Inverse folding.
């Protein structure tokens, strides 16, 4: 019997744990769910005889080491900063490890050690990063193998609210970590277009959106998603002249969000004086000139021309930007205050469904002819627990664990799902769960 | 005989060392100038029998400790990050220390230790910080003592080129650390106006300038200088409704500089791909949309409306922004590339003179009457070595050392020149060197 240790039993783990339990009998697995709360872990196991729950606390050196030592494979759903601690123990006890998080420098530094221990540390096995890599590499490799040369690769992903639950003027709700949404795009966004490096500073990011229609879901807009340049290495497209990764929103989102960016109220680096007793109106007024005879509603339209668009202004008003309610957050940064306001309005109702949209656009040349492949995926959430986000993050991870336990993964060290033996079976099985890409090819020129 | 150890013999130390040597005989001092280069130190002493030169290397634990142990007072002109290392040794050997740098958290953390050792660590004894504190506190305390209540304090400083050397369209040259000029204002600028906290994000900082005429030197503009709020504590004006600190430039500077800020090319957090082989034209184009049929000169005016002002555009062109010259800097950040371009055009010629401008604006209420005091200072550099910057940074420091050695400083711990026994004699003696404030009082309302 093989023991799978799942670390962390948060909201997004339901589908992943269910998959493991569903497959446990056939493969002779036992699934141990470890969480800081045994009760939370037990709820996920839900009485299944092939599972059990235990307390797992990464800061309890002895007990956490014992849990990992007693397992055959470890799936970490803990916060990303804890992964290196888990990985160190997995290396010490020679246990393969899987996560849906980015292979950051701390993890990459463990590559040699993991190779020496003879185990893989499989990273980026979720949606984005995860399914994006797998589905892109499948098409990229097919084009290359058929003798084509890629000239351009654009790739977009968005976590959105499903059309049936889309009932606010922003056409947006929080379906994932709100803090990441508030901070999205800070820093510089970099990409390459026809051989020219392009850099968009954060204050202009939301000015420069692409427009797209995707599948049957209508219109979207896309803004650049930080460092696209590094994906030339990850996807083995070192010399590709155009490479762009973006984030998908509904049309009009960026123009309204731009008001917050230009005010400076997504800044997370300093705290606002006396934020606790301020009202939201006073908070936004703090970024505008002192003109006691002009209302905030007018000043903001003078400060930022986007705000004077009635469609944008309606979005701002709907959020309660001009309300006299107290913020009630002590020593808060602007980003924290904005997040609090947004959480009051953008939270999902229990019946709401989320939606994941992903689109890749490949341009390539073969025998003098230029063609384009557009490959798109949409996933609508089932319910509260099995959101589209939880399903698309959890299933590839769970399938990867099955590959590993059935001897299909020979790589060691830090491994991404950009190699055929990993992405092919995962994409094939995801299809059986309705997670698949619709592909269309077009002639160019 | 008292031994004064001066650490660092850089360009800006000439006037300070000369003052100490000039006063050495009268006070029975010996001035030891320590520098990483003995030759540089020797040049500053210039054969004066009351001075000597030695090699000083803060990373040579033993020798640097011996030098400090053998002295009576230490003046550190080393880079600011080295001050805590010097301060630790000064505490160990119970030697007073003086610098012109900010009392940052690392220095403040040594307050208790310095008090126990019975020595002062006198910080912020230069121009800004330095003369700004002294001259402001003199007026603030006078107003308070006469029964007035301060309602507003604005304070501006600028390091500029003197009118007789002002011969470029920016009316600006580098008279101090170029890097600090390129990075000026990054982060948020915060102040308070009639009791309302105000925050200006960096991308809008150069949009929001004040206009001023100062002394007989004509027109200037002022932009906010980072955190003005903390000065309420430093100047004991906790409840003042308005407090603003700013940086002085000639009119039109901010509007043109804003083009660089809005492009994002003052960013110092990432490097530009292949920066070495790029031209300046390509560099600026990297922040603009890919439109191969539109020249950079036109694209930049579409991107940033300030650039379409012919006065601004002339400034940009004059700098060589659109030139096909290679940058020639490897792995450079945008800020480093911009700095290189600016250094080619904004450097002082050997005969050029610099100018320091400082203005304080105090508003106060007394017996129901509101009044305003405007207090302004201008200093023009003498020559290459005795620039206005070097003189205004070095003289207060040297005078403070004299006060200390003649028993006029009783404070211990980390000390700022905001207390009367320190600022009064320094300001009085600065006057004898022509460094003085012209004060005017006005009725308000």
């Amino acid at each position: 019997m093989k023991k799978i240790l799942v670390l962390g039993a948060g909201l997004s783990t339901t589908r992943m744990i269910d998959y493991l339990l569903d497959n446990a009998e056939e493969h002779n697995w036992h699934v141990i769910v470890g969480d800081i709360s045994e009760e939370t872990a037990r709820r996920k196991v839900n009485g299944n005889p092939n599972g059990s729950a235990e307390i797992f606390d990464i800061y309890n050196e002895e007990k956490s080491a014992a849990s990992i030592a007693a397992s055959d494979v470890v799936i970490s759903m803990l916060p990303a900063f804890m992964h290196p601690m888990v990985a160190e123990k997995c290396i010490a006890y020679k246990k393969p490890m899987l996560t849906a998080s980015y292979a950051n420098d701390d993890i990459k530094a463990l590559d040699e050690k993991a190779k020496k221990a003879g185990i893989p540390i499989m990273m980026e096995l979720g949606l984005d990063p995860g399914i994006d890599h797998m589905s892109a590499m499948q098409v990229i490799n097919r084009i290359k193998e058929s003798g084509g040369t890629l000239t351009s690769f654009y790739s977009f992903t968005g976590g959105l609210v499903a059309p049936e639950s889309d009932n606010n003027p922003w056409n947006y709700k929080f379906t994932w970590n709100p803090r990441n949404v508030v901070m999205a795009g800070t820093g510089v966004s970099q990409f390459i277009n026809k051989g020219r490096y392009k850099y968009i500073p954060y204050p202009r990011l939301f000015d420069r959106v692409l427009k797209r229609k995707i599948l049957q879901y209508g219109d979207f807009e896309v803004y650049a998603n930080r460092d696209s340049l590094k994906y030339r290495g990850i996807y083995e497209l070192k010399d590709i002249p155009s490479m762009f990764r973006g984030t998908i929103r509904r049309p009009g989102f960026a123009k309204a969000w731009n008001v917050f960016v230009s005010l400076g109220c997504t800044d997370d680096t300093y705290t606002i004086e006396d934020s606790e007793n301020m009202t939201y109106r006073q908070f936004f007024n703090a970024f505008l000139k002192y003109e006691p005879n002009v209302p905030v509603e007018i000043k903001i339209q003078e400060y930022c021309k986007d705000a004077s668009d009635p469609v944008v202004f309606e979005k701002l008003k709907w959020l309660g930007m001009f309300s006299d309610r107290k913020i009630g957050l002590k020593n808060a940064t602007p980003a924290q205050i904005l997040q609090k306001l947004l959480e009051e309005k953008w939270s999902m109702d229990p019946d709401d469904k989320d939606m994941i949209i992903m689109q890749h656009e490949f341009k390539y040349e073969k025998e003098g002819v230029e063609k384009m492949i557009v490959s798109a995926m949409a996933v609508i959430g089932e319910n509260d627990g099995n959101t589209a986000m939880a399903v698309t993050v959890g299933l590839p991870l769970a399938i990867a664990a099955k590959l590993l336990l059935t001897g299909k993964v020979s790589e060691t060290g830090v491994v991404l799902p950009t190699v055929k033996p990993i992405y092919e079976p995962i994409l094939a099985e995801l299809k059986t769960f309705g997670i698949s890409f619709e592909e269309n090819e077009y002639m160019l020129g």
